[in-house]
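[Q] Does anyone have a clean structure-token version of this?
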Amino acid sequence: MVNTQATPEQTRPAETGEGGGRPRLLLVDGHSMAFRAFYALPAEKFVNSAGQATNAIYGFTSMLVKLLREEQPTHIAVAWDRSEPTFRHEEYAEYKAGRSETPPEFPSQVGLLQELLGLIGVTSLSVPGYEADDIIATLTTRGLAEGMDVLIASGDRDTFQLVGEHCTVLYPGRSLSDLIRMTPEAVEAKYAVPPERYCDLAALVGEKSDNLPGVPGVGPKTAAKWLAKYGSLDALVAHAHEIGGKAGQNLRDHLDDVLRNQRLNRLATDVELGVDVTGMTLGHWNRDGVNLLFDNLEFASTLRDRLFAVLSEQAGDDSAEPVQDEGFSVELVDPAPGTLGDWLAAEIAAGARTGVALEWSGERGGDIIRLALAVPSGRAVCLDPTQLDPADEAALTAWLADPAYPKVLHGVKWALRALWARGWTLDGVESDTAIAAYLLEPGRRNFELATLCLRYLGRELTEHNAEGAQLTLDLEGTGDDQDTARRELALRALATVELALALDAELTRREGLDLLHNLELPLAEVLARMEDAGIAADLTYLRDLEAEFAAAVRQAVDEAHRLVGREFNLGSPKQLQQILFDELGLPKTKRIKTGYTTDADALAWLAAQTDNELPVILLRHRDQTKLRTTVEGLIKTIAEDGRIHTTFHQTVTATGRLSSAEPNLQNIPVRTDAGRRIRRAFVVGEGYEQLLTADYSQIELRIMAHLSEDEALIEAFHSGFDFHAQIASRVFRIPVDQVDGEARARIKAMNYGLAYGLSDYGLAQQLGISPKEARVLMEEYFSHFGKVRDYLEAVVVRARREGYTATILGRRRYLPDLNSDNRQRREMAERMALNAPIQGSAADIIKLAMLRVDRALRENGLASRMLLQVHDELVLEVAPGELDTVRELVVEHMSQAQQLRVPLAVSVGVGPNWHDAAH
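[A] Here you go.
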């Protein structure tokens, strides 16, 4: 049976190529290109939060984009191998025997790649009993008969037999993006035989990867010389008795092998495919489907932008997002000086929404260059704040600060900071279209205005003027024409107000409007103030720390060189492999394509397996290098005010957690003493007295107890004993005071693992025990906490039925893959379904706490302020004389942020710096 995603439209005659030339058919060997991508990109660096490896998908997609862009095919298909035996195995049972086992991270990516091809309209084929090369040979034959030029992207040399005047093989070179064009001349130059004789050459020489033995002692040069003399393998066999020497005798002794090799190497050209080669044009593609897939895989926007660009150019607009209108109609007006207030009164009624868009200098809400206001009718103004008449500025600032006039923006946090920098106030914000879209699709990574207009309005972010001409929005902001820039900003304001209406309607349907209005929008203002405040940094201390870590790195290098007896690059995996496994003879680690892995886990294992000091030194070198890099990055981000101003993002994580960037203060290591020392650099600022830190204790587990309603788990929280020790006491049936560190650690891993959807295999890996032992431990756990098991099972069943999970506050995460036919995608979605309600509820609760604490600080007239939120921790800067009040206020409002069946425990610490304020 043929597996294909060919669309109904793919039945028309072959289209001509660019300039009216021959159509161009691109054929891709799917497994060949996917394996190449897999080994070119490190699997450990390409894995999403659900544990799905993505390196093959990312690399394959990148190469496909390059092929589409550079080769400009009019037709395309991807052929795949299958797992079951082929006709070649039936003839020769040892065919391809001895190949190394497929890495476990690879198979799940093939199904996802085939899904991606279906989403972008590329025909994907596999046929039982045949290999991808046979499908390619069949399509090549048919394509040539249709007058096409054929390009074959494959790393299998068997395809060389297909090369001809109108068929070229794109064969892998040294790098991932390097492809060698194997034309008839290139094949003959390399192998001294024409392409049609390559199959004969391979039959004589053999093919190690296919486990096809050749004639002993006969290499490519000898085989080519024989074929040149006799013309073909059949003729050579007929004259085998004439060839003298040991090579001739070996040929005669192995004639059966040679003829068998010839039969197996020859590609089938008559495979029944069920699709017509002329219909393999790039079909309609599904932008939303690709976005959802890439969001689940957690790919950044760069790859999808490249893919969308080449698809838009070659396949046209996707059918999933039909354009209903060619753009937006904007009427830009210029009120006379001193009449802006009249225009606002005439155009904007109290209670009517207005789109607001700003353009500012810099990246963090600097000086405002332009400000545009637009009403749904399409009328808009675009203002330069530096050129405003005093009366107009007064009218504008009064309108912006008036909550009676609802405003909608795209990226309200930056706008707030830019307006505050001018001393202006913004009130009455009713929607942020980026945040609203995030609440609807938290797995999405692209919340650009243009993308959302297409997604929810079916309209391009362009201006449709009276003459029908189009003004495309200058998304890069490179236009110099002032009038064009003004119109573009007015267009953004109008698009924002129209988009907000569509998003609100969808949020209302999905019961998410309260989250927008009561949680995320108010939080944006709190985050803007925190970013403006920043946190003071001790530059001298950081420079001393950087020098110390740099010295530690040099010391580790010197120790390693002395131990080995020569200099080498500690950052080179190839050199480390040679030293560790060849020269020192240490135990072999996990096998990878380039040898044996030398990653951190492998070095830690070696350190435990041997008395050799080198693995320990290498680990120390990596740790100190990472610490030095972290400190160097922090030094670069200290602003002129001596403070570090991180950026908090509300629309990045799928679970609702905030993320931090530039710099990422959530990534500062705290598990080692050296890492914790970095926190000493964050100090109380001038005019303040102390830093106060407050965080929730075991919040995910408390949420688990609340959601599962497990009486035994709830009781453990009320017992007054150490929670993990209390649970261990129940599971292992021993008194609490007899629970040792190992038993507590196992139960702690279990407790948190269940909250994050950990499997028995994952638990086994974490605890260093067998999956069977982990399974027994989990069963024992569930025998005491049965409602936890019931909850975990029920949450997946409910999510599969409803299509989404929800937090305590109703934050939804849609998981369509729960019903996927692809097992890997289904299991990935099940892990997300287990994790999202708990981690998402924890994110919601800390956000509620931030709102309550911020409001209490301001209502009590306190000068103390929040500076940071790091996961479940808040960091505040306390003004002189306010410590006791702030401590009491923070504990009260954090502990009462959400009512649960177990208390929310809050720990507080105080000190002159972040480290000393720990608790």
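[Q] Thanks! Anything notable?
[A] The longest helix spans residues 823-859.
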